[in-house]
Sequence to fold (386 residues):
Amino acid sequence: MKILRVIRSLDPCGGGPIEGLKSSIPYLNQLGISTTVACLDPPSSAFIANLPFPVIPLGPVHLGYGFRFGIVDDLRRLAPEFDSVIVEGLWQYHTLACWLAYRGTSLPYFVFVHGMLDPWFNTRYPFKFLKKSLYWRLFEHRILRDASAVFYTSLRERSLARTSFKPYQANDLCVGYGAPTPLLPTSEDLSKYYSRFPQLFGKSIFLFFGRIHPKKGVDLLVHAFSYILPLFPNSHLVLAGPVSHSYHSQLNKKISSLSLFPHVTWCGYLDSGFKRAAFSTADLFCLPSHQENFGVAVAEALSYGLPVSISDQVCISDEVLASNAGFVNPVTPSGTLKGLISWCELQAAARTQMSINASNLFTLQFEWKNSTARLAHALQSCTSIP
Fold:
């Protein structure tokens, strides 16, 4: 089977959907499903130059919406080369363009929602909700209605999505999500990591890894850490991931007001050996997010046997709690603090067991080879291609 996956951008700063797409492709190849990715990035984009799969850049496009005349025709011309199409995400032109190109044709298309129908956004951004409500009635509900299937990463994400906008009609399936089998850091990886961040050596590390955005509750984590530090002075908070200039400044003001600068490290975007070193040397992964349809970084942390402290708004928090692979608390200052304190107060044997539980949970439920098998089954069952 040959599939085309259409995404707004392959810029790695875009977070989970991009990383998930990249990680799943090798596993789909093992199942006999070859993948080509079409994106709206300009052909000159540096981040698409050396990707290990075929990329068709359809940009440049205009504004954040990603509009350009001719994209629908471009997508139609690609149709004979593929057996099915997966559209990644909602609310932007590439999704509408795929619907215009493929509705009523023999080429089945699927929509991967990636958390974009969570009702949290409706209450958090009421003006955007009004615009989305109009767009939903004009186009978006038809795009889901006419898709061969609509994919969700968790049962809770699907349940929440059904309540977000009306009318809602879709053949919605939970196919899961995941992270790749981890590669342990080499001695060279660790050496480079500590050379770049020498202040982390020998510290007890609380790690945030991912796109640093107000939705992620990083401000709650910084606030909670300020209470932890006097009690456990060997602690250090690591913030790894891309961040906007304005939010970086906002968090720095908070860090400064709490006198935390010597105990907080901004790592920026980490990849390859630096990423492996960050996960392997951390003690607890922290994500007090206000909304997370899955949480790829949570799965990555679990893959390294790293216990997690996450909010109850992360849609895989039930699995974490049931497996005793970490701590789950409300998205509040006290809830975030409780997760950190719970970890600090654990005895060594309990920490070791929680690490084993984290690794087992990843292997059983969130390893890409398992989630891509579910995705492959969904694709094959909804098409005539074996």
Notes: Residues 27 and 369 are 6 Å apart (CA to CA).
